[in-house]
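Lab meeting minutes (informal)
Scribe: AK
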Amino acid sequence: MSRPRVAVAASLERLTPLDALVHLAIPALLVAVYLSPVHYESLAFRPGVDGVLESYTSLLGHATLGHLLGNVFGLALSSTLSLALLSSVSRRRRYYACFATILVLVPLLTALQWTLLLEVGAIDAPAGRAGVGFSVVTAAFVGLLAVSIATYQREALVGARGPFVGSCGLLALALAVVAVSSGLGWLALFAGATALATLRDAVGAMRASLREPGGEVAVSLAVVGWCVYAGAAVDLFAVGTGAVRAHVVGLSLGFALVWAVVGLERVAATRA
């Protein structure tokens, strides 16, 4: 049964100066570190040697201006669009809970991953260094964007699937790009079919919503979300191969942490 469309034009909250300050702080820090005399390699995380502090400082180093600008642009686009999507369906607090969770936990969990890989012999002892740059966190925010798009569609479009199913379909789109670029044929086939089925359902919900008064507003934001997400998936997983594994880790962590936040939110709501 179709759910009624949310009046997005009325419910969309404008971004406040505080929102702008929060979302400009991280890019400003990354640019400041890049322009400083600190060499990026000195900030890289060394598994088995470095600790908690270095798991955070390792995010700040970037080898080239292109690497820096790619992360800054990707972070700004995925985070602010997620905020717009969730704010428009009255999920602003959820966004900031996810925002903080990603920033706090993704660096720690990524560093733990490197350390575990060292312990099982999957990587060599850190004669050099491993893990540098903000890409893993940027990828985590793309995971947040997937859940934000699916949540928005469920609330703002007519007949859209539930957010978990929808977000899994969006995750499959990114995994399909990974599989194609890595030559994993069966994974590419399965993930691609799942992503196409999700896109078909989304298009159906968009077409139904266009029949509603003012439905163009709701549909246009959903279309922007899909386009940005698809572009981010191609940029992270198909353009170059050097950091694909780190990007997959970031995307997966972001996706899982967002759903953990949603789960805790629902538990708290049932106890209230």
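Next up, CB showed the second protein from the same session:
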Amino acid sequence: MFTKQKPSAAVLEAFTRRLDEKKIAYSAEPEKGIVRVRYNGEYFRAVSFTFMFDSDGTSFGLRVYSIAQFTRVQLEDAYEFCNRMNEKFRWLRLFVDEDRELTAALDAVITPATAGAVCTELLHRAVNIVDSVCKELND
């Protein structure tokens, strides 16, 4: 898929190869070092999990935007909710962004040899955590 690979291309390819093996649908923008996986959980619908690979191929960031939207009146409760969830769950940190949307993030170090397994494992953990968070948000 990639020719004359830069380090970021090698890790991106390792991850997308693993997604293909697991038959997980995704979209990729190799020139930007981005892979998106769209998921439906039990308690959320059509949320994108966006992987952004650093140009040196040694790390990535996973961002999950627009999990939920809060009104200005709900902000104080939203911050408290995020604090509770951050205390409860490892691996993924939650915050309310400038658009008052619940967002999740994690960062990890990788190599081309570990990228497929690490990214896939953290994707599954993130999906499970987001599902749990959405359940608690709706309770």
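CB comment: The chain has a mean pLDDT of 93.
No objections, moving on.
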